Amino acid sequence: MNQAKRAWLGLAALAGGSALWGGPWFAGSAQAAAPVYEVTHTEAEWKKLLTPNQFDVLRRAGTERPGTSPLNHEKRAGTFTCAGCALPLFSSSTKFESGTGWPSFWKPLDKAVVEETDSTLGMRRTEVLCHRCGGHLGHVFDDGPKPTGLRYCMNGVAMNFAPSAA
Domains in the chain and their CATH numbers? Predict the structure, then answer.
């Protein structure tokens, strides 16, 4: 879930508590705290650090056009990292051709991603975020290959590739 969605949900929860209890300062009203990530920047700082497309995907939960990422064709051994904070996310050994137009993986690296429920667009999906900076990477679906049966459908623009040393 991106920061704008979290802020809106927090305001909605506060407004709901106000309506129910007669004021925003009712001591019993609870508001879910937004997660705090290890790497944080202001919006202006993110805009300086990222390309416009990276900013749209990582910080605004946008989606790149299918088939546009050079990472779709990446076949070398190595690691896919977050374009926002360089956290290693996926091993090339878990990448597979899903036919969707986005880089797909059947498993992230340990403690690399966070999964959140995404109810936008009138459907319920599982959003995948970078564990270190909270950047939106894509979504995970249950139609992938063995051994996990999962398809981590990632935006290529949200990642970089570091080839293994030969």
Answer: 41-163 (2.170.150.20)
